[in-house]
Design goal:
By secondary structure, the chain is an alpha+beta fold. The chain is 23% helix and 33% strand. Strand 5 and strand 6 form a beta hairpin.
Length: 290
Amino acid sequence: MPIGILGPALSAQTDAEGCKDHPLFNRLPGFHIAKCEKAQFELKRFPISPVDPNKEGSKPKVMEVEGAFFFYRYEMEDESKKPSPLQTMRNFQNATRKAGGTVVAEYPGWCTAELDDTLHHGNGCTLYGVTMKFSSGGKETWAFVESDGQGEAYEVWVVEREAMKQDITVNQLQEKLEKDGFITLYINFETASAAIRPDSMPQLEQVAQMMKSAAGIRLEVAGHTDNVGSPESNLKLSDARAKSVSAALVKMGVSADRLMAKGYGQTVPVADNRTEEGRAKNRRVELVKK
């Protein structure tokens, strides 16, 4: 029996306290929610490519997705309805396609790929996992579903993609710049790229408006990364992203001679790189008053 997507969720009396199905998915028959987690804003790296089965430790390419995060662990409560791991994966794939979503990648079998540590499951090996993407009303939602390999449990990760809200007005931006000497922006870029995603443009438009209203302000656009990857690649990426932000502001009407772009890579962290929350804070662009 296929699961339903974008439809009503089934309920169970044995769900963990405070847990309920995500609106995108209802559950497989005979399962309850044993555990759930959520966060207003998180980053997860979803696997999106095949791997070389002949290469030990082969890792798929990943898509970095930031936004509201949800995690669910479902455990079987009815042995008579126990699905095989492959059946679980196929259910989600079929329902995704039926709902107009995209099956981005699949990893059938035991340890067909190693997951990034933001989607942590046991030793990191995939177990009949599938990555899915849904786009509706200008909103993009990513999901990864994985069986436990026995059919007795499965886990679901969901991120509703959005830019971190820059809840500050143009006047407040200027006041903060005058007071602190810098403004921190969290810009959504394409993975391992300096291309700015459209959902981050409103932040830059506010900055452009501020600079137009305060003609004497000059800024250093400083790019920063976390410590994932080599110091050399992070320095190069941060510099490219700083230049991309500077170019976007120029296109919005800010004079190029008022901006100086520079990348600092991973050398100036503001939070602990040992945690995902810390790494997310370190991936930033700072506008420093000159």
